[in-house]
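Sample A.
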Amino acid sequence: MEQYEFKIDSTASRERLDIFLSTQQTEISRSRLKKLIVEGRVTVNGEVRPVGYKVREGDQVTVQVPAPVPLDAVAEPIPLDIIFEDEYLLALNKPAGIVVHPAPGHYTGTLVNALLHHCKDLSGIGGVERPGIVHRLDKDTSGLVLVAKTESAHKNLAAQFKKREIRKEYLAIVKGNVKKDKGSIHATIGRHKVHRKKMDTRASNGREASTEYQVIYRCKDWSYLKLWPKTGRTHQIRVHVASIHHPVIGDQLYGGKSPNLKMPRQALHAHKLELKHPVLDSSLSFNAPLPPDMEIFLQTHGYSFPEKIDALQK
C-alpha cells in the first residue's frame, strides 16, 4: 500500500478532486484515480468525497493506492524478439500469427502471456500487475509493439499516441500497380454495418483517419509501399489501401486474396517507431527488419533489395 498526501493552496481551490490529483502526479492515470475515489481510497480532511468534489484551500487530501493484484493470465516462456528494454518500457518485434491480448479463443500463447514471463519488474498498471501494451497490431500483422512497464510510462506513451507525436512507419505489399509515387488517403473509418469484424470507410459512425504512402517498387500486379498512418483507427492501413483498390496481399478480410500472389498472411509490417522516452525525454527510434515471408515474396517476384546491395558495397 502506497500513500500520497496533498495540501490544497489558493491556486488549486475549486478544482474537481480527480482533476486536481491528476495534475499533481504522473504515476497514476486519471481513470485509475477516479476508481480509487469511488472505492473510498481518497479522503479529504479524513472524509470520503465524490469524484466531482471541488477542493478548497486548506483541504488535506490523502490517497491510498493498494498494491497491484496479479493479472488473471498465465506467464508462458514464449520467445520474444526484444529490440529495446529498460526499467520503463520495452519495444519488441512481434511475429505474425501471435495475438496481443488474451481473449475468447486465445487465453494462452499471446504476447501478454509471454511478457508476464519475461518482465520481472512490472510495477502495476491500473492496479494490476500487467504489461501496458500501448497500441495493438492485428494477429497477422508483424512488427514493432511498445510496452510500458510502469503506470507513468503507460500514461505518457498513451498521451504521445493521442497527440500524434509518435511517428509510425509500415511496409506493405499491395495488389495492383499503384500509379502515384506518393499520396495521402483521407477517409473516415467505422464499423461495417453488416460484417461486424470489418471496418468500412462508408460507415455512418466513421471517425477521421489519414494515411500517407510512398511507392518503393511497383510492377504490373503488385506494389511495395511505405506507409505512415497519421491516426490510429482499427485496421486503418488495411481499410485505406483497400478503399483505393489496392488491398494488402494476403488480407482475406479486405480483398487481398489472389491465386497468383500468394502470402500466408497479410503482407503488412510495422517497420519503424520514433518517439520520446516516456520518463527521460530522450529521442528514441526503433526498427524491425522485414520478416522472412515478406522478403521471400519480394525476392521471388523480382525485387532485388538495393539497400542490401548498397550495404555490401560500403
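Sample B.
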Amino acid sequence: MNFRMSRRRRIFEGKGKVLFEGPEPGTLVQYFKDDASALNNTKKGTVTGKGVLNNRISEFLMSKLNDIGVPTHFMRRLNMREQLIRQVEIIPVEVVVRNVAAGNFAKRLGLPEGTVLPRSIVEFYYKRTDATEKPLVSEEHITAFGWANPYELDEMMSHTLRINDYMSGLFLGIGLKLIDFRLEFGRVWDHDELRIVLADEISPDNCRLWDVKTNEKLDKDRFSEDLGKVEEAYQEVARRLGILPEGGNPVTNANTNITTINER
C-alpha cells in the first residue's frame, strides 16, 4: 500500500479491497489487495499482482457499463492499485446471475457443472455484517425487512439484466463464457434524486469465466479449487480484453506466489 494512501483515513476493509476517504466529499479511494479467500472465508491466501489486475479489469468493465448508460460508482483509476469512486450507501443484498450451472448452485440442484440453464436465473443473498455466510433470500425477505424497497429492487433487477446481456456478449466476443457473476448496488443522491448505482467491482474475483473451446476456468475458482496458475488466468482475461499487452505482466515477471492457509 503506498504511503499516500496510508495517511488517509481507512473507512472499511473487506476480503479483497480497502476503502479510504477520498480527496473530495462524497468520494472514496478503493484499494485492491492481493488477498484471496474462498469457501466462506475459511480458505485464505495471497496471489501476487491480483489487485493490480482486478483494478484494471474492473476499470475497463465499469467504464464500458457507464458508456451504455448503466450507472456505477466508478469515477476513474488513480494508479496501479487504486481507483476513485463515489461514496454510496450499500444495499446489503448481493445479486447473483447464473447462466450456466456451476459451483454451489450446481451442487444445490444436483446439476452437472456446465449445464446451460433454460434461461438466466437471478438469486439474492443477504450480506449479514456479523457472518461470512450469505443466506439465499427472496424478494419478499428484501422488502419485508427493508433492505430495499420495491422501486429499488426493480432498478437493481433492470440494471442486472442489462449488465448480463452486455457482458455476456462482450466476453463471448473474446472467447469466454460468462458462467455467473455477483453484483452489489448502492444508493447515491444525484441532484436531489436518489439513484441506484452499481458498486463494488467486476473482475474474475466475482465472475466465473470459462474458455469457450476448452471450458478452462479463468477466475477465482482456480484458487478455491487448487487448480494453480491463478495469476496467469487473471492475466489471460486482461489480455483478451486488450488491457494487458501480449506476454506482459503489470506487476512482475516472477512466477505467481500463492500462499494458502486452511482454517477449519
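B remarks: Confidence is low (pLDDT under 50) at residues 252-264. The longest strand covers residues 176-190.
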